Amino acid sequence: MMVTFVSQCEKNALKKTRRVLDAFANRIGDNTWQTVITQDGLDTVKKMLRKTASRSTAVSCHWIRSRARSQFLWVVGNKRKFNLEGVVPVNRTEKDLVVKEQFALNTEVIANLAAIAGFFHDVGKANKLFQIKLGVIELEEGKEFNLSANSGKKNYEPLRHEWVSLRIFQAFVGEQCDQQWLQALASININTAKELEQALPAYHDLLEKSIASPFVTLPPIAKMVAWLIVSHHRLPQFPKFLENQPSIESVEQWQSVFEPCWNSPQAIDKDWSQEQITVNWQFPLGTPFNSSDWQKAVSDVAKRSLQCQRLFSNDWHHNLFTQHLARLSLMLADHGESSRKDITNKDSDRNYLAYANTDKDEKDKRYLKQKLDEHNINVGKRAYHIACDLAGFKSKLNTLGKVKALETPVAKKPKHIHDEFSWQDEAVKLAASLKEKVEDYGFFGISMASTGKGKTRANAKIMYALSEPDECRFNVALGLRTLSIQTAKALRKDLFSEDVKSQQQAREKVALLVGSQAVRDLQQIDLSQDESSEVDKGSESAESLLKDELDLLSEIDLEQLASFSWLKHDSKILKLLHAPILVSTIDYLIPATEGVRGGRQIAPMLRLLSSDLVLDEPDDFNSADFPALCRLVNWAGMLGSKVLISTATIMPCEAEALFEAYQQGRLEYTKANGDKNTQGKVCCAWFDECNKPKSELIDTVSTFATEHESFVIERDKALVKSDLRLRQAKLVDIDSVGMDSYSEAMAARIHQSVCELHVSQAVKLADKKVSIGLVRMANINLLVQVAKHLFTTAAPPNTRIHYCVYHGQYPLLQRTAIEQMLDKALKRHDTEQWAQESGVTERIENTAELNHIFIVLATSVAEVGRDHDYDWAVVEPSSMRSIIQLAGRVQRHRKQTPKTHNIHVLSQNYRGLLKKLLCFEKPGFETKLVQYFSKDLNELNTEQALDSISAATRILKPLQPNLTHDSPPKFKTFVELEHTAQSINLYGSRSSIIYAARWWQHDVSWCGEMQRLQPFRESHLSEDYSLGFAERTHRYLWLKKEDGVYPTEYKPTKDIENPTEPVAMAFSNSLWHQFDLSKQVKALSEKLGKSEQQTLTIYTHVSLQEFDKESIEQWFFQAEFGIYKLLTKDDCNNDK
């Protein structure tokens, strides 16, 4: 390709640019170059230009396509030196531009609150214990104030510095009203410090009794500032290890009982001596009140605040938008100031000697960094400017711009595409008509189109139509890495064509964030290729194998770095914010509400503040995670975002809860930013492929419920009419009589079902009968035990069974290899292509058997996130939701109606066979509050739901639950319990007082209690392992990551045992997936240019649940089964 480079650089940037371009191209003018170059070469040029780029750099690149046509490719540096076509301006004019501000009405209020809090946020660091810890004050001989009574070294004080800062501020305010204490601050003088010294002893926690909560005694503005001070590192949270937890029923009184342990859990440690506590309240170097520089700066802020009349018009502590934007500004300011390296302490009173922090020099030696008065001054000033900048923040960020693919109607596509996806045009038309309403009322939509109907592209079109092209920015949040990667690829492919410029645009406009570079590397490498084959587009990722979790595929605009100087210190946040479309696992946005520690909240809050939200398949999450999803949607509403829920299987109670969460959040946004829509109306819309899309302005949950129900009823009618009965299930019974164990009994029943299903569902391939089926079990340990029984069970005559065990506890490299094999084998849109590329043909060609059964023995990892098409399935039941999800993988691509049942559902699960009290839990919806009356599905009215499995049982609300007369009543129908259990989880009941709606029904976002009581993805502590190679024995061994060691170290461990005996296998059975670790590691090392030990450490990683300290359990690893534990209590004692 022939390209032309044009430089508009200035100053030193011109020399640097010439040096790079002269090495690659011929200079044909003073600042113009031309050459013939490959795409790889062009990428190298761009990379080198970016390395040396500064604010004075501006280089454009044009591709000469023909004699009459060139194509503008990119700009490195200042884009304002060129227009959208890469043309250099010949003249300039100026005019005033109005920057669109999101919350102009409240900007000054937020800025003043954040600034005042900034001046006070760390004044408590002046305490003697903290200054001893920094090394400012030397320990007096014989004193050990930072040692506990039990001689364990403590790196903390009885009370954290935020709490001491809070009490200092409270002592200063005293009993004054807001006008009075601000006036006192404005007229601060040398006597103020003495007055504070006299007032402070009354607020000495742990020394004085019955000190009132600051949220009870302080006036409104001071109360808000006090909360900002105490929460600037983390939200207050009651220690979970203490008894007498705050009652959820008295949630409105939590602020009244607010005490030190909410911020400083160590305060309740009885080992603290009276002397240690006393020293925690001593200030030998004085507080910043003793600094003349701090006095002058804080006086200016107080005077400015007194002139802001709106500041006194409201109780801002109960205005969530103002409250949390002020906190965000303060956290950003503190984060930025603490990250600075160029500290001069020029803004510090030279007579004031207390310090705020320390740092390490290039020799790793610790030194005192910034004076305490200067730190508080700079954070206060920064917080003010950041709050002002945040108002126009969104308007300065990169936007999607005009995208032809999003504007082209499906009607202009070929007929077969038009017939399948024409519903998208109606959806876009409706969304575009709502553009003006959405400005005033926000937007809450539900996209319910079925799988395969282009929902990913439709969602992008809807979000694009709801905004102006130069304002369109949105996030797509998903539950799984694999889905995130698939969605990002689909959007890049759909929105941008294949030419060079469009590929560049795709990388800049659609960012992918999955949290693991190793996962992304393996996704781009075909592990089944021969060792000599090249990496397909994998080298770039492999080159920069960063441990950085926020590694994005988008690039950063240098001009935006200049626009947000307060973010310069953190390139991770800049990357996260830059791209107009961010596709990620929800884990990167959920800390906006779930990140109790302040630093974790900053990036996702900025992202939600500057872009809309598409929440993809929220009902796929565990029911216990749904309260956290509601909190995220509530936050999106509060920050002014539009929200689109994308799911075809959402329960009515889930839809209602998400709507109410959004509505209440939007109401907070409206309260802070204007008087429109005080009734809480929200612009709602519903989209699918069956009905005409509809929209309504809705102000109550009951109205929403009615509208949603009418939409899903019509959808269900349409789906029934077009139902091909692709997934027909029946119950099958387990007979444990004569069996030694329940796992053996389950294996026998599964084997029988497998053989029956193969006979009825097999397809012809290479003159053989072939079927591929999924056997889904609830838990890994049971799955492995059942697999062992199946491996040793002979297949019927003239039949070979190929087994593959698949779950989440494999080394990453092996799991990826399994997934790539299954992706090929189960991509069945085109029968001929499948026969050639699936790898199945090669497995059966040279075998004598006529029948070949391929079985994937898997856990729930096979249910969600894999675009696979099976012929049949056998299911261990845990919930109707999981059965529906699994059924969606049967006949997913071919859509051929079976002549008989193609899914067998075991009538009992393993826990039911063991006669556990709750058998449909973990996974499942059954709890002590909501139980089934039987453990056998034969007795739970499942016939209709299983006859033709569809989403109807999920999206339609049951009319009246069928219950027993027990106390409490038990459910007689399998599908009804799920609706009730989720409704209780979201809205509570007389017996369940911890529920999701409390988040928006009560003022609880000031603390982290709801996040503690209903956490997101609650799990047991995990430990990290990877494989290593022992040079002495030439064998692989397991290594365990050392806790708290930096840089990361792995040490040999005996936690995982590698059994040496070969896996028993009947002659008629074989492994579908053969994994040779040595061969794969060697091949991957060559592809990535890494040592085999590096490859092992990075790509064989696996996280496992931490052992109980008193447990004698043992992990086992076998390549055929992954990592598992042996089953206990499996014997059929009761039956014998």
TrEMBL record:
Which PROSITE patterns does UniProt cross-reference here? HD_CAS3
Domain HD Cas3-type spans what residues?
90-336
Q: Which InterPro entries match?
A: Cas3-like_dom, Cas3_I-F_Cas2, CRISPR-assoc_Cas3_HD, CRISPR-assoc_Cas3_HD_sf, CRISPR-assoc_Cas3_yers, P-loop_NTPase
Keyword entries, A-Z? Antiviral defense, ATP-binding, Helicase, Hydrolase, Metal-binding, Nucleotide-binding
Q: Name one GO biological process term.
A: defense response to virus
- State one molecular function term (GO): helicase activity
Would you identify the family this protein belongs to, as annotated? In the N-terminal section; belongs to the CRISPR-associated nuclease Cas3-HD family.
Name used for this protein in its record: HD Cas3-type domain-containing protein
